[in-house]
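Suppose a colleague, Dr. K., hands you the sequence of a protein chain of 89 amino acids and asks what its three-dimensional shape might be. Before reaching for any lab equipment, you can write down a predicted structure in token form. Begin with the sequence itself:
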Amino acid sequence: MRKARTFPWKCRWCDGIRLVVDPAFPAVKSWDARSRTAELRAERAALSPTHFLRDQSQPQSEWLDAIAADQTISDPVCQRALQFAREWK
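The predicted structure, expressed as tokens, is then:
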């Protein structure tokens, strides 16, 4: 008989499509079962610079300046990244 696998994770948030758990080590894991639409791809692209700048321990005002000046991302992605950066707590 096979023993059931157990995970040392606690569910932190779930909406039926997305799941975020807090594992035993200092990181957060998330799973997203939404369809891979153009809107979702843009959202993920917008989160990337926001996460990067947040992890640099810079003030939020510097995030906004850096995102606005980034010419490697399209205007819609830039606008979404600025929105994420403004809403970040």
